[in-house]
Specification:
The chain has 15 helices and no strands. It is mainly alpha-helical. Helix 4 packs across helix 15 and helix 5 packs parallel to helix 8. The N and C termini lie far apart (65 Å). The relative contact order is 0.10.
């Protein structure tokens, strides 16, 4: 009998302890909620938000929504009007669909119009982007890393030159570049687009600053002590840490080369070497020429096709935008 009673007392004690623990946990949660509310009130009075205890802002939500609509409006316009025929494009509301769905017919016509020259323009643009923007990214990576991690005479002068180059707009250099390439006999050739695209002062500056912060000097010294060559150190240690900066630089150069308009306008006269920007503009102006045919539906559809590779590039490369890749690699 005494053993059974002691067992019942033990169970009662356990239940009492569990009840007390649940009560203590509820009180702790209430204190945490009260502390968070007090922190929000203090942050609101101070005029800033605590990043570890964020609060919702109706004003910021509305502003972000307006900005999102502003950014997506041209894309929605392209999608809607790419489904129209030429007759519907000129007779219906810009943000309304036409009487017939002609998207697939428009796409097929874009790639067959004028003996399929749109495909040639697309290949030309890809060539300029892969060789020009790819080369600019590679040069920016190597130059920025070297400027950040190596000390040599004239380093400050190089920095001043880079900052000065960033401040000069590309349009101001277009005419001197044309005169130089005309002297070399390179106008109206792909090199007139590729060679200027290889230089990206902003990309070089971006990789310089990013390499300075993202690659700890202690890691490089440890690799050198272990006998790794400079190339192996750069390839196996530094390059993975530079991935976010590399992706950012690549996207800047890709977009700049893909959307370049003024340089090919003055450099290229042969339609077979046109990029998409010049080619589509030529189609747009076709209706204003004597006996020209209006093909705005093809221009809109071609523009929609033109931006798809950029959207894919952003979606595929955004996963590399990470921070803190080197966090914890070095113990201070």
């Amino acid at each position: 009998m005494s053993a059974a009673a002691s067992t019942r007392l033990t169970d009662a004690e356990l239940k009492a302890r569990e009840k007390a623990a649940r009560k203590a946990e509820k009180e702790r949660q209430k204190r945490i909620a009260a502390d968070e509310a007090a922190e929000r009130r203090r942050s609101a009075k101070a005029g800033f938000a605590n990043v570890n205890n964020p609060r919702r802002s109706t004003l910021m939500t509305v502003l972000c929504a307006i900005f999102a609509v502003y950014c997506l409006f041209p894309f929605v316009y392209l999608v809607i009007n790419a489904t129209k025929t030429q007759a519907d494009f000129t007779s219906t509301f810009g943000l309304g669909f036409g009487k017939s769905f002609a998207l697939w017919d428009n796409i097929a016509t874009v790639f067959t119009y004028q003996d399929g020259i749109f495909g040639r323009w697309l290949v030309n643009t890809l060539l300029y982007v892969v060789v020009g923007a790819g080369g600019a990214t590679l040069l920016a990576i190597m130059g920025g890393y070297a400027l950040a991690k190596f000390r040599f005479p004239g380093r400050k002068a190089v920095f001043a030159v880079i900052i000065g180059s960033i401040s000069v707009p590309g349009i101001a250099l277009a005419v001197p570049q044309f005169l130089l390439f005309a002297k070399l006999g390179l106008t109206n050739t792909p090199w007139a687009m590729i060679i200027p695209s290889l230089i990206s002062p902003f990309g070089l500056y971006l990789m310089w600053i990013f390499s300075e912060q993202a690659v700890p000097t202690e890691l490089l010294e440890a690799a050198r002590v272990d006998g790794a060559s400079e190339f192996r150190t750069f390839w196996t240690i530094s390059l993975p840490l530079l991935a976010p900066g590399i992706v950012t630089t690549a996207l800047f150069t890709i977009v700049a080369t893909w959307n370049n308009y003024f340089l090919p306008l003055i450099m290229l006269k042969d339609a077979n070497w046109y990029p998409l920007t010049i080619g589509l503009n030529q189609w747009k102006d076709q209706a204003s020429t004597a006996g020209g045919q209006a093909i705005q539906n093809l221009v809109i559809t071609g523009s929609l096709i033109t931006i798809i590779p950029l959207v894919i590039a952003f979606l595929c490369l955004q996963k590399y935008w990470q921070s803190g890749l080197a966090a914890g690699a070095v113990k201070e």
